[in-house]
Amino acid sequence: MQEIIENIIYNTSYFSLYGLTFIYFLFLYFTVAPMFLVICKQLNKRGLLHKIIDKKVKRKQLNFEIKHSLQSIFVFGFSVLPIIYLIRIDKITLLPNTFFNVVLAVVVLTLWNEVHFFIVHRIMHLPFFMKRVHFVHHQSRIPTVWSVYSFHWFEALLLSTVPLIIMLFVPFSIVGVFLYPLASVLLNYAGHCNYRFGDGYGNSWRLFGTHHNEHHSKGRANYGFASNALDKFYNCYIKRH
């Protein structure tokens, strides 16, 4: 396994690396998304999840989301290239792919993503970027699993730099870096699926899934990714009543 990984890192062409990354994100979007939605619907029937906005999403919105998500996936494909280049010239150090290192990489990258996303998202809500860039994502007034990658290409480019920035300073397992987008998109689906855990009242974990949904419906505040910690710290959190 280690030999296969090293061969991919050091011997695979950049064109092939782009193709593999593009296919990976296509898989996360077109395979994991419908599976996630089916699970949500089944849990909803059992009373474990509750619909947040009980309105049917128009086909026009879904087509818009898929179109722009494909555009974002095209951009995401390039995200692996600078990472591999910097690994090849010894500017990025990799840790052994032990179980501990893999789990640690996924956890640290997920936590770093909360900070990275919050910063980018706040910037996107400045009038200049909101009008010209971030308006694309806000076309999904009722978020769906298909809206997770529905961005303007420039926003997709900024969001794709999560691993690259931190890997310049912190070594990771490359397998952990590979698994991070899966963990990220699952949290992303939870925030966009339009379902909440439990009845959604109060301040407990049962509210999970409502924070980003509130942001889509109101168009302000709740800038965090999966957590509302930074929103509360910077006093830009809308509590659901």
TrEMBL record:
Pfam families with a match to the protein in the record: FA_hydroxylase
UniProt keyword Acetylation, yes or no: no
Predominant subcellular localization, coarse grouping: membrane
Transmembrane segments: 15-39, 68-87, 99-120, 165-187
Cellular localization per UniProt: Membrane
Keywords annotated in UniProt: Membrane, Transmembrane, Transmembrane helix
Domain Fatty acid hydroxylase as annotated: residue spans: 106-234
Cited InterPro entries: Fatty_acid_hydroxylase, Sterol_Desaturase_Related
Entry keyword Transmembrane: yes
Protein name: Sterol desaturase family protein
Origin species: Aureibaculum flavum
Lineage: Bacteria, Pseudomonadati, Bacteroidota, Flavobacteriia, Flavobacteriales
